[in-house]
Amino acid sequence: MNPKAVLSNELRRFVESRLKVNLDGIEETLNEIFQIQGLSLEDLRETIKALEESFTLLSQKWSLQILYILFLRKSTGFGELKKILGVNSRTLSDKLKSLAKGGYVDRSVEHGPPLRVRYSLTARGHDTILLALPFLYYSSDSLG
């Protein structure tokens, strides 16, 4: 038997059981808040506008992949990220700058020789990928 398949099935059952509990809790909490506060169309419009920058950044190609790699590797150099993703230097550089500006990624320079730049997750980046991974896993067609 393929050990990856067994692990995948066990992981899938675990994630699904945890997701069910979390999703039920989130839904219950949001329903309570909306019942107490109500939500007008203008409130909804303002909420969406406030989240627009995060929606845009996190939905762009490579953003979640970079966060996922940094989650697994803890700290990674530019060259390693480039090799794993198979992306060109300019695209990766731009994406890392955007993620750093958004507070998701920390950039540290190790003075050489040679000079090395390493990337790691901030607390915000760490929490974001922890929240995104179950969603991505759950919505992936290739896993079920």
User: What fraction strand?
Assistant: 5-15%
Number of spatially distinct domains: 2
**Strand/helix succession:** HHHEHHEEH
| CATH-defined architecture of the largest domain | Orthogonal Bundle
Assigned CATH class of the largest domain: Mainly Alpha
Q: How many H/I helices? A: 6
Percent in helix: over 70%
Whole-number mean pLDDT? 80
Which keywords apply here?
144 residues; mainly alpha; Arc Repressor Mutant, subunit A; three-stranded antiparallel sheet; 6 helices; 72% helix
SSE arrangement:
Elements: H1 3-37, H2 41-59, H3 63-73, E1 75-77, H4 78-85, H5 89-101, E2 105-110, E3 116-121, H6 123-139
Helix pairs in contact: 3-6
What would you say this structure looks like, in words?
By secondary structure, this protein is mainly α. The chain has two domains: 1-38; 49-143, Orthogonal Bundle (Arc Repressor Mutant, subunit A), CATH 1.10.10.10. Helices cover 72% and strands 10% of the residues. It contains six helices and three strands, in the order H-H-H-E-H-H-E-E-H. A three-stranded antiparallel sheet has the order 1-3-2. Helix 3 (63-73) packs across helix 6 (123-139). The longest helix has 35 residues, at 3-37. It is globular. The mean pLDDT is 80.
Q: In a nutshell, what does this entry contain?
A:
The protein has 144 residues and is mainly alpha-helical.
